[in-house]
Q: What sequence folds into this?
């Protein structure tokens, strides 16, 4: 995909359901049923909106979630494969190598080597000041969003950044909230999904926008000075910092909240003492 596309609500609802239950058996017919469309119509609508078929999207999502977990957890590779929906270890090994052009074991080793070249060490943040990354507990709140995938060359945001530059459908004084649904270092840039919108604060959802919840857990937070786009090093620092120590990375959207003249980026984490 070479441009940004907007995702219709019917596709968003199905994708969110699939993503929360990756280990289950998902077929085209089941996805279409969730959206209340025929398989033919859903397949055509999904491909037009996302640039790939439901089957290709599902396998890519499973492989990318496995790649994320390879870097975030210490479980055996076969267990991680089962967690994302691969029933046979040999199938996972073959598909992972075909997608990333390297074995799962070598993928983790290579990523850590690349971080070292950037001056990043797991569990540390040598690029910032001590204490600059803090732990925050975001209360659950309701927002309305539009979802896009990819990037349009005419817009002023990078696929790895919050889309603050283009702000349709909201007043200039509206509090802006962005959600990065894919990890830019793993997902190809043209397929990185973003939700962006504003807090509801009791208002009804505007036409063409989708209601969703954010927060409700622990996050490692780091402030980026300026309205955006957020520098890629912010994501890298949060990710690598959450690779070791008491707080470890967990799956979930990266939440970006505009505050004054900056953006606070929140990486989901878990406290290892809490399991």
A:
């Amino acid at each position: 995909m070479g441009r940004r596309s907007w995702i219709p609500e019917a596709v968003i609802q199905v994708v969110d359901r699939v993503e929360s239950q990756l280990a289950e058996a998902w077929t085209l017919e089941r996805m279409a049923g969730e959206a209340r469309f025929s398989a033919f119509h859903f397949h055509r609508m999904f491909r037009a909106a996302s640039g790939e078929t439901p089957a290709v999207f599902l396998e890519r999502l499973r492989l990318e979630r496995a790649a994320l977990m390879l870097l975030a957890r210490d479980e055996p590779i076969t267990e991680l494969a089962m967690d994302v929906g691969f029933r046979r270890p040999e199938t996972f090994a073959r598909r992972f190598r075909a997608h990333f052009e390297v074995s799962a074991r070598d993928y983790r080793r290579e990523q850590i080597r690349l971080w070292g070249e950037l001056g990043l060490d797991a569990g540390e943040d040598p690029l910032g000041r001590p204490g600059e990354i803090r732990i925050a507990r975001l209360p659950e709140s309701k927002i309305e969003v539009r979802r896009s995938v990819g990037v349009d060359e005419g817009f002023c945001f990078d696929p790895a950044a919050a889309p603050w530059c283009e702000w349709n459908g909201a007043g200039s004084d509206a509090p802006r909230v962005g959600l990065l649904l894919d990890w830019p270092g793993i997902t190809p840039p043209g397929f990185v999904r973003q939700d962006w919108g504003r807090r509801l604060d009791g208002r009804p959802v505007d036409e063409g926008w989708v209601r969703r919840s954010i927060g409700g857990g622990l996050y490692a937070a780091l402030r980026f000075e300026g309205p955006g786009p957020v520098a890629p090093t912010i994501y890298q620092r949060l990710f690598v910092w959450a690779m070791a120590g008491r707080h470890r990375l967990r799956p979930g959207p990266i939440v970006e909240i505009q505050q004054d003249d900056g953006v606070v980026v929140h990486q989901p984490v878990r406290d290892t003492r809490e399991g």
Observations:
- The helical segments are 9-20, 28-35, 39-50, 54-72, 77-83, 89-100, 104-117, 232-241.
- The radius of gyration is 19 Å.
